[in-house]
Each structure stands twice: as C-alpha cells, then as structure tokens.
Amino acid sequence: MATQPTPAPVRVEIYDQVYNLRGTDADYILKLAEYVDIKMRTVAEQTSTIDSLRLAILAALNIADEYHILKKRYEALAGEYRQRAGQLAGALDEVLEDSRRIG
C-alpha cells in the first residue's frame, strides 16, 4: 500500500509568532492563520491585556461565537428549505395525481 506524501510545512505568522503548519491546502492554512491573527489584533486593540495567551483565548471565544451564530443561521435556513421542499413535493404529488385522474 502506497503512503501519501507528507505535505510541506507552511510558514505562518500569528500575532508575531511563527508557526510551521502542515496541511493539504497551503492557501487555506494561510487564510486561517491570517484570520486568527486579525482576531487577536482586534482583541488586543479592544482590551488592555498584552498577554498573548489571554488574547488567544479571547480571540478563540470570539471565533466560537461567530461560528455558533452562523451555525444557528444555517440550521434555520436548512429547516426553512426542508419545509419548503416538503410543500413543493406535496404540490407536485397533487399535480401528478390530478393528471393521472384526467389522463
């Protein structure tokens, strides 16, 4: 069985710290790192703390909050789409049933 080649490390900088990360999509890793860096810098501007661990925790909480808000929106939309799909399927069934009676 052939083994997958190990992805090359991607050098990223988050809040002035360099990390070598591995993954299959270097561009995606860079975007994630940039997002985390921006979040940490935003939190740093809004608070008086300079402790990078505390900033990382606060940034993580902000990101988790964004995730849960988006997840709720997604679930609400998915529910609406499922409901609408059920209504459309019912309407289609009625049309098909009517066409069978006529035809």
Provide a descriptive summary of the structure in words.
There is one protein chain. With 103 residues, the chain is mainly alpha-helical. The protein has one domain (10-102). The chain is built from two helices and two strands. It has helices spanning 26-46, 52-102, and strands at residues 10-14, 17-21. It has a two-stranded antiparallel ribbon. Helix 1 crosses helix 2. The chain is elongated. The N and C termini lie far apart (59 Å). The relative contact order is 0.08.
Quick recap of the structure?
This protein has 103 residues and is mostly helical. Helix content is 70%, strand content 10%.
Work out the number of β strands: 2
Distance between the termini: 59 Å
The parts where pLDDT drops under 50 for at least 5 residues are: none
Looking across the biggest beta sheet, what order are the strands in? 1-2
Instruction: Report the sheet with the most strands, covering strand number, pairing sense and barrel closure.
Output: 2 strands, antiparallel
Structural class: mainly alpha
Percent strand = 5-15%
**What is the overall silhouette?**
elongated
- Give the topology string: H per helix, E per strand: EEHH
User: Helix proportion of residues, in percent?
Assistant: 55-70%
**Count of distinct structural domains:** 1
Q: So how many helices?
A: 2
Radius of gyration: 24 Å
Query: For the residues shown, what is the average pLDDT?
Result: 92
What topology does this entry show?
Elements: E1 10-14, E2 17-21, H1 26-46, H2 52-102
Antiparallel strand pairs: 1-2
Helix pairs in contact: 1-2
